[in-house]
Each structure stands twice: as C-alpha cells, then as structure tokens.
Amino acid sequence: MTAVYAFIEAEKTTHTVALLCRLLQVARSSFYAWRAGEQARRARQAADDALAHEITVLHVASRHTYGVPRIHAELRRLGHRVNRKRVERVMRAHDIVGVTRRKRRGLTRPAKKAVPAVDLLGRDFTAPGPGMRLVGDITFIATGEGWLYLATWLDLATREIVGYSMADHHRASLVVDALAMAAGRGRLQPGCIAHSDRGSEYTSGELRREISRLGMRQSMGRTGSCFDNAAAESFFAVLKEEIGTRRWPDRATARAEIFTFIETFYNRRRLRKHPHWGYLTPLEIRQRHEQGHALAA
Prior knowledge:
GO terms for molecular function: nucleic acid binding. The protein is of the alpha/beta class and 297 residues long. It folds into 2 domains: 94 residues, no CATH class; 163 residues, 2-Layer Sandwich (Nucleotidyltransferase, domain 5), CATH 3.30.420.10. The chain has 10 helices and 7 strands. The strands form 2 sheets. It has a 5-stranded mixed sheet with strand order 3-2-1-4-5, with helices on both faces. Strands 6-7 form a two-stranded antiparallel sheet. It is elongated and about 95 Å long.
C-alpha cells in the first residue's frame, strides 16, 4: 500500500488526489494519513542515520570490537539519551558487530617437584580495593620471527593490567619482570595476593623470592582447572580478539602494538561493566576507588 500512496504523491501535480484515489480504490483519508506520517518517518530515518554515524565513529575508536552493550554505554557517556534496543536495531541495519571471543590454547606446564601455593582466592575474582589482589598468566603471540611470549598481572579491583613483560621465552624471569613492573608503579598494598596457575614459571624459586621480597602472598589454582584463574585468562581472550592481528611480521611490531593496546586502549579507554558503577574504564574504576579512599580519610 505504501507504493500506491507514493505513486499518488508523485502524480498529484498532474491529476487530482480525488481522481487518483478513486482510480486506485483507496480512501483519500488513508492517503492523507500516510502523507502526514511520512514527515515523521523521514525525521526518524534522518535521526537513525545520524545515530549510525555516531555508532560508526565509536566502533572504529574501539578498534571495531564493541558490541551493543558498550556502544550503548559510550553513547550514554556522551550525553545521548537513546534506547538500547534502538542501538541494536541501527547496528544490525548497518552490519556493525563486535568481536566474539575464541577459546585459546594455554601454556601451563606444571613443575614436577615444586610445591604449589595454597589457593587464596577460591575463584573469588573480586577485591575491595586496588593493589590487593593480582592474577597472572602467560600467553604466546605468533610472529614471523617465532613466538613472542607475554606475561601480565591484572588487578582484580580495577581490571587494569598493572604489570606486563614480553620476551622470546617464557622462563620465570618473564613473570618476575612483569611483577616488578606492577610493584614499581607503587600500586600494591602490603600482603597483596599474587594468584596464578601452577605452571613452572609460577612455582619457580625465582618468583617465590620476588613475591617474598615485595611482601606479597602467593596463591595458585588447581592443576588442569582453567576456571581457577579465569580472570587472567579472560584478558588474553580480549587481547587476541580485539587487537585484530593474528600474526605479526616480527616481534618488535608485535611488542609495539601490544603495548599500545594495553596502555592506550585497554587500561584507559575500554569500557567494562562495574557491578556498582556501570560502564567505566579500568583507569576510571581505580580513580573511583582512590576518591572514595580520600573521602574516607
């Protein structure tokens, strides 16, 4: 019926509306009702086109990774009062989609003779404040020169990557260097827990001595249970999906892009849904904690 009304609208300068409606067997009142609604439809379409532009800009800024929830949160942060279902509809119409995480193959190789530490987290991946609970893990990155290994320590209170290290090996020094970086930033509290799996890098005497020197406590999940260190593994899933590249030409290029991803995007710009404060970046979550601590003092 819309096509009929559009034809009448196009031909009304040649023939009267009454004649056209009679020939096409439609009520004049229905035509005028459609015509009155056409302006509203065009206005809605123009608004959707403008929203699609805003969404595209945000999607590009997120490295083409944000789906509906984070795009909606970004729009709200920018002051746009927009319904989430409308965002979903516009994104679907313009084929704008976020990334979907894949399962990753782990590096965990348990040491045969080392005595593991007690699990101090028990799958409770929360923390009352920054610098109190860290989770660590190692992953590998494919390059044209061979593997590049990345070790990280993630703060459970903020989900910031507070320490990381990259090398062409995954010996204990890799995780020690990452922990030293976290400590060097001055964000660790006395007695901070350093939780990991039972890989040989984490059961090493080198890491135990560093944890003791820093006044921290070591914690480990069970052998063969990825869920005991799920928060640390979750970051690597985000990294590998959202950074986009599957294989870099060389280790130097991979290092530079991973550094940029962690420091300029993940820690400072990537939104995460906090259970109490809504969508914030890891940096903003830490600042909220610091402000609350300052007010309490």
